[in-house]
Amino acid sequence: MFAKEGLQGVVAARTGLSRIDGERGVLAYRGYSIHDLAAHASFEEVVHLLWYGELPNPAQLVETRHSLASQRALPERVADLVTRAARDGAPMDLLRTAVSAMAIGDPDLHESTREANLRKGFRIAAQMPTVIALQDRTRQGLPPVRPNPELGHAADFLRMMTGRPPEELAVRCLDVAMILQMDHGLNASTFAARVAAGTLADLHAALTAAIATLKGPLHGGANHDVMVMLRTIDDPARAADHVRAALAQKRKIPGFGHRVYRTLDPRAIHLKELSARLAQASGQEKWYRISTVIEATCKEVKNLNANVDFYAASTYSMLGFEMDLFTPIFAASRAPGWIAHVIEQHTDNRLIRPNEEYIGPPDREWVPMERRT
Ligand code: COA
To answer: Is 258 tagged catalytic?
Structure first.
């Protein structure tokens, strides 16, 4: 039987991680609504929830925080690689290469038990923000900022980027944005991770495949393209005409539409709120205001809803990130979800290998070189 194009509607894995109801706009991690997690949880709590199945008690949270915070510093060879390529490498390419390079010398590389995957998972998830910050500072000619294990994941990420103690609002906004992006069913990058893990390839290999897959503009790359659009429009008064013209020419508007949601993406509600709070606090309202006009016009003209990437762009921009860092931040946010999926896959593995329908020429006879025209 031939599945619909793009495997739409095909159930290709079982998961206990996230539940999505695309008709009703529901997303829950291990049974907890994304709305509750966005309101109350920290990045570390949600990592614990995904990896161990339950919300942590206070002692478990201390341990999970410590396991992440104490492993933020990069192995020397990875730091060296990032530093050398910082000016020439695009951040998403360098992050993918750095995660792949983290495999070299990892003491658990060839073991894929749950315990070994968790040990590797802590190291990878802890170090991805360090890679992003190190590259960004190095390419600006700034000295690297060493991790501070006293700080939480989001706070230290911001401090390693700027070299300054981050503001409370910025920390909370990044924390929530990272939670919102942590897991999302069998999205394309997670599927790629599971396909790699399904061959019994190791965690680093699976994450490298996932980062490669997230890069595309139909997936994680969309947040970058949203920022390009906001900059092109540059003035709220021009936003509606820009969108109408693009839709009339059948162009896709980045940050809109979704394979699964038929209504508003529940993550977009919170990202819009974060964007509004940052706009108000900073007094720079331009990106937020342009975004609201684009959102209203897409809804009016084509009944299109914003997805997770749309308000992530203005949020990240107001947090001070360059736009080529948006997709790497998405990768650092999604990493705990990918790791949880690889653990699920390795725990109950079967090679993922669908069939294909052949549509090429029928069988034919070999043609010797002298008879070919
Ligand atoms: N802008 C304009 N029209 C869009 C659109 C968008 N962003 N997203 C979907 N549509 C329209 C398509 O043109 C198509 O309309 P048609 O039936 O009149 O031809 C219809 O909606 C279905 O879109 P399709 O691309 O077939 O859906 P899909 O499930 O294959 O794709 C996405 C889903 C996410 C890839 C698609 O919505 C998209 O390309 N969005 C922009 C990129 C993006 O934001 N990606 C991040 C996703 S979280």
So the answer is: yes
